Amino acid sequence: MTGAGAGAGAGAAAGAGAGAAIEAAAQAATAAAEATGPMIAKRGRASYTGERSIGSVDAGATAVAVILDRISKAWPTDDQEVPQ
């Protein structure tokens, strides 16, 4: 991964459990999605808008960030019992 999200949260997830890793991934995805705002869309549906796309965050990146955020909130912590 390159760009704004590269390595974000890697230190927090190193050696930690899966819940911490997913939370770090969600934070990195959110930061990376927000970093797409000043970019000009060059691929996908938004590319048709050209320079008018500046200031709009990438919808796909935002969707991934939201999905990871919801997963990280639903992921059981170490002190919670996993439902069977």
Task: Give the tags.
84 residues, mainly alpha, 0% strand, elongated
How would you describe the overall organization of this protein?
Helix 2 runs antiparallel to helix 3 (59-74). 44% of the residues lie in helices and 0% in strands. It is elongated and about 50 Å long. The model has no long low-confidence stretch (mean pLDDT 82). The protein has 84 residues and is mainly α.
Chart the SSEs and their pairings:
Blueprint (H helix, E strand, L loop, with lengths): L9 H4 L4 H17 L24 H16 L10
Can you describe this structure in just a few lines?
It is built from 3 helices and no strands. It is mainly α and 84 residues long.
Helix/strand-derived class?
Answer: mainly alpha
Approximately how much beta-strand content do the residues carry? under 5%
Residue windows where pLDDT falls under 50 for at least 5 positions = none
Radius of gyration: 16 Å
Helical segment count: 3
